[in-house]
Amino acid sequence: xxxxxxxxxxxxxxxxxxxxxxxxxxxxxxxxxxxxxxxxxxxxxxxxxxxxxxxxxxxxxxxxxxxxxxxxxxxxxxxxxxxxxxxxxxxxxxxxxxxxxxxxxxxxxxxxxxxxxxxxxxxxxxxxxxxxxxxxxxxxxxxxxxxxxxxxxxxxxxxxxxxxxxxxxxxxxxxxxxxxxxxxxxxxxxxxxxxxxxxxxxxxxxxxxxxxxxxxxxxxxxxxxxxxxxxxxxxxxxxxxxxxxxxxxxxxxxxxxxxxxxxxxxxxxxxxxxxxxxxxxxxxxxxxxxxxxxxxxxxxxxxxxxxxxxxxxxxxxxxxxxxxxxxxxxxxxxxxxxxxxxxxxxxxxxxxxxxxxxxxxxxxxxxxxxxxxxxxxxxxxxxxxxxxxxxxxxxxxxxxxxxxxxxxxxxxxxxxxxxxxxxxxxxxxxxxxxxxxxxxxxxxxxxxxxxxxxxxxxxxxxxxxxxxxxxxxxxxxxxx
Length: 480
Prior knowledge:
- Helix 11 runs antiparallel to helix 17 (427-456).
- The longest helix has 34 residues, at 7-40.
- The protein is an all-alpha fold and 480 residues long.
- The chain is built from 18 helices and no strands.
- The relative contact order is 0.14.
């Protein structure tokens, strides 16, 4: 596709719709989760798997999805992922049991892991490097913010009027439109590589280690932290992680080139992004549980009340990018995580009869900009000093770190909430005590991120300016 081909802008619109749908789905489920838990009879700890199953399969298979697309054909793989996303969304909507829904959500995550990096790869191969590509990346990033905001605006009416099933049915007509238009607007492309290795062992061991770790954290309050089940699962996670590292060090085409992680700035930035994802998703999950489970808000009221959060994240991301060019990535990341920690600290004292303006709004005004600013700073730091041949995989690692961190964060806050839910007290008071502990856990995670940013982020000013255009690739992941 040439630079003068106007069809490329229609192709960009199609790709932005795909990105919009992936982010919309991730955010809208947070809003509908209390209704889903009531409808299918999830336990207090089991409901988090509706989110974690998606986040783990999405984050764990993200790099594999991008590599498969590069080797087998980007348009073909994009359409396959879109078809699978639409079918799995229908399966989620028709799910009659908790187990079926969790399984369908895992399949949704797999399809998103195929769609998202493939759409981005098509974009990069459609627009030549320079001002037009940067403009396209900015529009791509903006579609994510719009998706997160739209989820809060339309998720409430859908859940209240039609039922939680429709937050999944909504994806089906969008996926169908994408399938019809893709052959007309997207050209086929692939990487001309001598070797066609996909590293499935690396993908499976990494995802298996993550699932074992998250499951151990979720079940620990009930089984005991030193029980055979918990220690066995944690040991399995360690073994699978070691197998993954050994595989990556020996394969000719690893999913995660270990040379990238030897850089303190790159590995440190991804650790910061991981902890940011844990804080962001943990906060969003707990807020939804508190707002709808304790305060009794409808999904519509809760969604409208929380629109300020994604809007603040968009503002924070643009302000953060401007600040990074002036003062560097480390102070912006530290400042963003500090805002997140302060927001969680404010929420750690929420009362049973909390009010929006008095108890939630101050925290939301801090939380959104904090997430946006830190995500951009982490993206830029993670790409600083990375060569052109590794820029794609480095961006993928950063995106996966945020998604996997989200699954870990939801597991941690669920464990904290279940452990501290007071027994023998009035129901709402007991739930509030558990949510206060969950918000306190978010404070601890954010503080850990601040420490990592202070110690590990040492990006030189000269590398930051070069990384800025690439950072726009990952900026859309800041929505939680």
